[in-house]
Amino acid sequence: MKTVPVGTRGMFEQVVETRHLASSLDPSLAAVLSTPTMVAMMEQAAINAIKPFLDAGESSVGMTIEVSHTAATPPGHRARAEAEVTKVEGRRLEFTVRAFDDVEQIGSGTHRRAVVDAAKFNDRLKTKQKN
Q: Which terminus of the chain is more exposed, N or C, with fewer CB under 10 A?
């Protein structure tokens, strides 16, 4: 892994579709962007931030995420997540994450990821799958 500078940014955006709605998880919920979808968008923004710094055979895994989802986004709106590297400790990275829709900020928080050797990670996973 190449050194990831603090301040490195990534983004991910998409139009909110039916499959992204809370009501897709449970029909009793509102037909707005679900929190799990917003979280996934934030993770993807963080991944996009560090991709250029990964060496061949490296990947990253999420470690923690703590976010607030503060505003509802209806279907058809564009949602955007942004991530900024705020701390680097070896292979562990911390990000400030934020999400927006066409009108306002809809969420914010912190996220931590670790850079891993993909082959070693998959080998450990195979061992676990055998149990």
A: C
